Amino acid sequence: MSYPIHLSRTERLSTLAGVTPHVRPEFEALVEEAKARGMRPFIVSVLRSCEEQKGTASKARGCRSWHLLGRAVDLQLQSNRGRIDDREPYEELGRWWESHGGVWGGDWETTYPRGIPGYEAAGPGDVVHFQWTPEYTARVPDSVCDDSDCQGSVNRFWEEDSGRAPSTTIARTAPSPLSRPVSRRVRGASLAPLVMTGLVIAGAVMLLKGK
Predict the structure, then answer these.
(1) Is the CATH number 3.30.1380.10 carried by domain 9-180?
(2) Is 10 helix (H, G, I), strand (E, B) or coil?
């Protein structure tokens, strides 16, 4: 599979369709983990073009961003009250991600100017940035990127990366019970068999008393 030029801008930037196929299960597990922690993950940026990367506030230039290579997702966390600006939820999710082999941008030197929503209170670092590059360094290496040929480097990486077998490192991992809050609906469903059993026993006792 080559660079997905068939995707619309919205699909590239706001959905996991912009991630190289073999690492998509890892990012799907990240989104599910955020939901399990009671948050609503909102995908801000996934696959950027070379021109779009030039227009970002990031210091990464040329093809020096994993966002061009389908290996990074910017994930903004929300609650029922709106955007979460507190750093703690990002850090907890980031440490979970790192424990499975991912890279979280929250420990990086800040590369974004102050005042961008979601960064002011949650800084320092690029707290919304999550990438899956266990076989590479955190930054895009010279072996992957030729700054003089951004789109050519991107195309070559996609050709090689998309031919790999699906990665399911996180997907195979059993979820932590501590990070899986039990909803009221689930609690109610789990009590239903007990309630039914109690009703049956009570009915049997009443029949015996009637005899």
Answers:
(1) yes
(2) helix
Ramachandran sector of residue 125 (left: φ over 0; alpha: ψ -120 to 50; beta: rest) = left
Q: List strand residue ranges (DSSP E) for the chain, in order.
A: 40-45, 72-79, 82-83, 103-104, 129-131
Q: What was the pLDDT predicted at 43?
A: 95
Residues 6+ apart with CB under 8 A from 92: 37
C-alpha distances in Å from residue 97, one per residue of 74, 92, 102, 134, 164: 13, 9, 5, 12, 22
Q: What element of type H or E holds 163? A: none
97-136 burial, b if ≥16 CB within 10 A, otherwise e? beebebbbbbeeeeebeeeeebbeebbebbbbbbbbbeeb
Q: Reduce the DSSP state of residue 191 to 3 states and report it.
A: helix
Predicted local confidence at residue 112, as pLDDT: 53
pTM of the model: 0.73
CA angle 86, 109, 26 (to 5 degrees): 65
Q: What is the DSSP track for 40-61?
A: EEEEEE----HHHHHTSSSS--
Which residue's entry shows tokens 């480097």? Answer: 153
The residue ranges of every structural domain in the chain are: 9-180, 182-211
The residue that leads in pLDDT, 155 or 62, is: 155
The widest CA-to-CA distance across the chain, in whole angstroms, is 94
Q: What is the mean pLDDT of residues 132-136?
A: 92
